[in-house]
Design a protein that fits this description.
Helices cover 21% and strands 12% of the residues. With 213 residues, it is of the alpha+beta class. The chain has a domain of 132 residues. The chain has a four-stranded antiparallel beta sheet. The longest helix has 11 residues.
Length: 213
């Protein structure tokens, strides 16, 4: 009963869903990959065209990918979940978080922050590396929650940025479809860009003065 109050009924099915397969109905269309999930129906993933025909007025979130792992934008998921305590990342200018834990080599020495559940190294002082690890933490200890109270829900609905103090504002219309397959180098904290190169430019070829007799 306690877990039900702390975790919405659609979250665990979402985390266990496979995304990015080709839609059986719209397989020949351009946007046929199944990368959407309906929180009202709580069933399988579906594509852009299925959303228009079957889930038009439902709560739907879009899943994206980076380095072959599923991610979701913070600006979308924080409207329906309390994602506090979960490490966020900036990928292609959008702040996202991972659905499930990712395998990694053994954590080396000198790591300041690690996930409480899987031990993955974290960039910032968060408790969990993903929604999946937070779910395990709730079931194990009961000292966290995914439930939004009325105040937090109102704040989340009016914001388009991440929960971190280093969050950045995002325009969903501009960035639509930018996240797909990325490299590990796409994942980074919101740090300023490196300074421009100070290398000297190559001087031009010198020309001799004309010879005078």
């Amino acid at each position: 009963m306690q877990d039900t109050m702390l975790v919405p009924p659609w979250l665990e099915p979402l985390l266990n869903t496979g995304f990015f397969s080709v839609c059986r109905t719209h397989g020949d269309a351009a946007r046929s990959e199944c990368n959407m999930y309906c929180l009202d129906c709580n069933e399988d993933a579906f594509c852009f065209y299925c959303r228009s025909s079957k889930h038009k007025d439902h709560q739907v979130i879009q899943i994206r990918r980076s380095s072959y792992h599923d991610v979701v934008r913070v600006s979308e998921i924080q409207k329906v979940l309390d994602v506090s305590g979960v490490q966020t990342y900036v990928i292609n200018s959008a702040r996202v978080l991972f659905l499930n834990q990712r395998p990694q080599p053994k954590t080396g020495k000198g790591v300041s922050h690690i996930c409480e559940i899987c031990g993955r190294s974290l960039l910032d002082p968060f408790r969990f590396c993903s929604l999946g690890c937070k779910l395990v933490g709730i079931k194990r200890n009961g000292d966290a929650s995914f439930t939004l109270d009325a105040k937090n829900e109102a704040v989340a609905a009016g914001r388009g940025e991440g929960i971190s103090s280093r969050g950045v504002s995002m325009s969903s219309s501009k960035e639509e479809g930018e996240l797909r397959e990325g490299t590990q180098n796409d994942i980074c904290p919101a740090t300023p860009p490196p300074p421009p190169s100070t290398a000297r430019r190559r001087k031009g070829i010198p020309h001799r003065a004309p010879f005078r007799s």
